[in-house]
């Protein structure tokens, strides 16, 4: 027998648990902002010449905040959102470990070429995972599907960039540069999806075609 709201049983007043807020905008914003900053570095911008500027974001916004959003998505029962936010939160935390000098990741390889190849394998694995998420996004909405398509292409180009022989010191190869440009576009799409989620609670609906099958 279920307990109804406000009904008293044996002098105990049952109260329904509070409604959990939508964690998706937080996860999307954390992903978007961190991706935006790193992607500018990947384009070879002279003003953001090192990915180290992304470190704080990768740890606390794209990493921790997005991971927390994934945990809250489990609470809402959204398996897709929980998997996506938790996984990409983990991605940013692992990326931070690669670029934090104290972890000594680059120095553990024989040379820079071996390190770049290993990072290429790391990015290839995320390319494969993102493709699986892209397929799963067919049952979400158009904005999320486009986001994962662009993200998968971004990972693919960055992977190719790591497997491509390096040019002059400080130069960014064409695959990485295009990947950076796509990453910026991906971040903008993620922000759009986040804004759609933020405005939904106010009754404002941004254009975003629902891909779920109608009952």
UniProtKB/TrEMBL annotation:
InterPro entries: AceTr, Gpr1/Fun34/SatP-like, GPR1_FUN34_YAAH
UniProt topology in membrane: Multi-pass membrane protein
Keyword terms, alphabetized: Membrane, Transmembrane, Transmembrane helix
Gene Ontology CC annotation, any one: plasma membrane
Protein's cellular compartments: Membrane
Transmembrane annotation, as ranges: 20-41, 53-72, 92-112, 119-136, 142-160, 172-192
Pfam families named in the record: Gpr1_Fun34_YaaH (PF01184)
A single MF term (Gene Ontology): acetate transmembrane transporter activity
NCBIfam families associated with the record: AceTr_1
Family: Belongs to the acetate uptake transporter (AceTr) (TC 2.A.96) family.
Annotated protein name in UniProt: 1116_t:CDS:1
Lineage: Eukaryota, Fungi, Fungi incertae sedis, Mucoromycota, Glomeromycotina
């Amino acid at each position: 027998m279920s307990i109804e709201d406000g009904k008293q049983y044996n002098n105990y007043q049952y109260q329904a648990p509070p409604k959990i807020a939508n964690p998706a905008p937080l996860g999307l914003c954390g992903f978007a902002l961190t991706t935006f900053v790193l992607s500018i570095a990947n384009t070879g911008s002279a003003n953001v010449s090192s990915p180290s500027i992304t470190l704080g974001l990768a740890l606390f916004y794209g990493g921790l905040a997005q991971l927390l959003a994934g945990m809250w998505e489990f609470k809402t029962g959204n398996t897709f959102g929980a998997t996506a936010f938790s996984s990409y939160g983990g991605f940013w935390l692992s990326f931070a470990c690669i670029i934090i000098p104290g972890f000594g990741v680059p120095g553990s390889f024989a040379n820079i070429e071996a390190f770049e190849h290993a990072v290429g394998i790391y990015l290839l694995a995320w390319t494969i995972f993102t493709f699986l998420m892209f397929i799963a996004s067919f049952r979400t909405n158009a904005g999320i599907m486009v986001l994962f398509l662009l993200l998968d292409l971004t990972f693919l180009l960055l992977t190719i960039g790591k497997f491509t022989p390096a040019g002059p010191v400080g130069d960014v190869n064409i695959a990485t540069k295009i990947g950076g440009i796509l990453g910026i576009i991906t971040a903008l799409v993620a922000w759009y999806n986040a804004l759609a989620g933020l405005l939904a609670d106010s009754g404002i609906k941004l254009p975003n075609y629902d891909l779920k099958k109608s009952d």
